[in-house]
Amino acid sequence: MKKQKLSVVLATRNEAENLAKCLESVKSIANEIVIADEQSTDKTAEISKKFGARIISVPHSDNFHITKNIAIDSARGDWILQLDADEVTPPELSREIKSVITHQSSVNGYWINRRNWFLTRFLTKGGQYPDPTLRLYRKSKGRLPAQDVHEQAVVEGQVEHLKHDLLHYRDMSMEKYLEGFNRYSSFIADQMQHQQLNFGIWQAINHLAIKPFLVFINIYFRHRGYVDGMPGFIFALYSGLIYPVAFIKYWQHTKHPEKTSPPSPLLNSGEGNQRGEVEKLP
User: Fold this and answer.
1) Which UniProt keyword terms apply here (predicted)?
2) Do residues 271 and 184 lie in contact, with contact meaning Cβ atoms separated by under 8 Å?
3) By CB atoms within 10 Å of each CB, which of 40, 79, 82, 124 scores lowest?
4) Where would I find the H helices in the chain?
């Protein structure tokens, strides 16, 4: 049987703060590391070279999944492990990945549960765990559609689920979280603009009061976000608040365009991870 080779692929843009930890976690299982970099101005390229990565310099794209696909298409291995720079593959997951790609089977892809760090801990409730993501697949069988911000890879044929978790260290501080909050609220404002949402009294009440309240109740009580203590409360609160902030951005941009710049065009970008009925990390 031919030895199966693993390509670890990433898309980056100014990820010097996170990248070394990510690459260190996969260097023992990666036959190659391919990074599509959007012309970073920090030490991203320097760090990548230290790990022997093959770097492809590409222009910035509002749809980050386009950049990810460039890395995927450039990979030479039999299997793709697609990661974000703020993700870490712990040893037990690395061993499991090595095992499943080594053994001959008809499986073409694997879902991996993801644990999301928020401020001081990994969130265990509030709909934030498990957070399954389809990241491991045969090169010829999987790819990102690059159509929507919340999409998963599309894999032909049989797909199964790995046992061990991927670790996601995104929101290490409130400052970092608010950067994403601002980008994601602009994305939602863009959605409202595409939908040409009206400014009637019902829409205003819905987005400024009802929706944030229901989102908070859903995350904090129905999905037991209270189990995660203060981080669980803050996450539930701000997951609801993103809707009035987005509505206000949409209102200002639409009604007073001369007094504001347009919301960031994040429709179809790689930011955020909202799946199903439960609010995900913005």
Assistant:
1) Membrane, Transmembrane, Transmembrane helix
2) yes
3) 124
4) 16-26, 44-50, 64-74, 91-102, 174-195, 201-205, 211-217, 229-255
Q: Please give the pLDDT value at position 282.
A: 44
Is the domain of 197 the same as that of 100? no
Closest CA to 153 of 138, 167, 139, 133: 133
* Residues 186-197: b if buried by 16+ CB within 10 A, e if exposed: bbbbbbbbeeeb
What single string gives the DSSP state of each residue in 29-66? Answer: T-SEEEEEE---SSSHHHHHHHTTPEEEE----SSHHH
Domain ranges, residue 189: 174-259
94-153 per-position pLDDT tens digit: 999 999 999 888 999 999 999 999 999 999 999 999 999 999 999 989 998 877 666 799
Residues 22 and 153 in one domain: yes
- Distance of alpha carbon 152 from alpha carbon 65, whole angstroms: 10
Read off φ and ψ for residue 91, nearest 5 degrees: -55, -40
Tokens of 177: 């979280």
Residues contacting 214, CB < 8 A, separation 6+: 240
The Cα 28–Cα 168 span in angstroms is 19
Hey, what are 109's tokens? Answer: 């892809």
CA distances from 44 to 40, 66, 84 (A): 6, 19, 13
- Taking residue 204's Cβ as centre, other Cβ atoms within 10 Å add up to 15
